[in-house]
Amino acid sequence: MSAAVSLPLERELAVVCVSGGMDSAVTAAIAADRNRLAFLHASYGQRTASKERDCFHRLADHMRVERRLEITIPALALIGGSSLTDESVPIRHGAPEPGVVPATYVPFRNANILAAAVSWAEAIAAHAVFYGAVWADSSGYPDCRPEFYRAFESAVRAGTRPEARIGVVTPVIHMRKAEIVRRGMELGVPFEWTWSCYESWREACGECESCLLRRRGFAEAGVVDPIHYRAPVKP
Amino acid sequence: MSAAVSLPLERELAVVCVSGGMDSAVTAAIAADRNRLAFLHASYGQRTASKERDCFHRLADHMRVERRLEITIPALALIGGSSLTDESVPIRHGAPEPGVVPATYVPFRNANILAAAVSWAEAIAAHAVFYGAVWADSSGYPDCRPEFYRAFESAVRAGTRPEARIGVVTPVIHMRKAEIVRRGMELGVPFEWTWSCYESWREACGECESCLLRRRGFAEAGVVDPIHYRAPVKP
Question: Are residues B160 and A115, on separate chains, in Cβ contact within 8 Å?
């Protein structure tokens, strides 16, 4: 008998929903530790879709992810109800108000993106869908709650083929933004190729909710944010 | 003081996912008993989409439903993995095999449709989404299981605004096809304007899984199916 040889196990395939923002970029870097990756981007009528897709491909190139799927979810723009998808509703500038769901909330958006990601995962035999939702330090969107992802995972287990066994994984959901920045720095995430702003100007506005959360995160982490902002830091 | 007048309570608004098939038509008739209705149809690249949309509008006209939304879910056709959305995979004719998920299964399709329906329900302040899934007497698609809808409803409660309180209602899920036919007859469902066949020929093929389940249901109920079939009933 020959000596037992320990063969490296082939790493399992996972779908990562990559928006082009910093949270999903860090989520992708975390997922890469133990998985082969497939990246999904969803355009749902958000004004920043082309900025996001550019960051999506730069991150995929950087991480050498070949398998990429760009989808559109036209129903969300048709349904409306959000300043992100309705150009006639201005983006509110300023910090989120505690306990108030902001006008940027797109009704049940994350479920629409996740459902498509799970369909893809089932079709390509991936064992997980990674999603960069953040609850601890966020705008308070209901579809960013940890309970939502737990319930959605139960729906996935019940609603896909028995052998599919697809998990829904949200590794940054309980992290504060500063922690996400620090983890991304450790993992070599190219933050210069992420877009967080709700506006689609050449430079990030620096004043919308999403920019404010990002800037506070970098400041708290003591890391220089490599992207440029139109508005200076408020004193 | 004037005498107290008992005003009729305004009926609540509900979204019904209407495919154009018989199960969702009966579901709509059941929902109409206690709700004002809004109809949603989803095209996801299925070969029968235009037949279905025609039935969708005829049923909506018949039931005097003004509020209608037709959406497309292009991701499902892009992802593939099903003979319903991939013209190169032929539709298998014959009865479903017990315990086998058939090639007509579109991975996690119902979650994609439901997610969009819930987004619409949240945007228009509807209190429920009705879905005509059938498990008792069906092709065995995993996303038709009762557990899937229970888990999805939990995801809806967790993932929408607290005040939304949207239920997911599947009134025919435990009914056999014959029972659905009988219930539809009682409620005056115009079965002549429903399309169940997986093919998009002028007449229903009469031999695909979906036609066979429908024909058996009408036969068991002792009701004449008002639509025409290309293939005669097998002896």
Answer: no
